[in-house]
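$ ./design --mode recover --in tokens.txt
reading tokens...
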């Protein structure tokens, strides 16, 4: 019997669109996101997925972002 591979998740944050409101950080149920020290071109501190292995792919960060700056990508190896 083959072991089921876990889907890999990637959180992409568009630095051009993000205004640094950090709603995604506040609302993540697994505390995957945190404030990074890097700033975007507008001077806002960007969120970063520092604990991506804890992500449950609920996509709440993508759904709640008022600027549509977050995309959650999954690569499910199961076909």
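writing sequence...
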């Amino acid at each position: 019997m083959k072991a089921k591979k876990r889907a890999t998740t990637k959180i992409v944050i568009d630095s051009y669109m993000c205004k640094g409101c950090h709603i995604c950080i506040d609302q993540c149920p697994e505390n995957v996101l945190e404030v990074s020290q890097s700033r975007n071109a507008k001077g806002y501190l960007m969120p970063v997925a520092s604990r991506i292995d804890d992500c449950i792919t609920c996509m709440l960060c993508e759904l709640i972002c008022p600027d549509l700056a977050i995309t959650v990508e999954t690569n499910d190896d199961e076909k």
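exit 0
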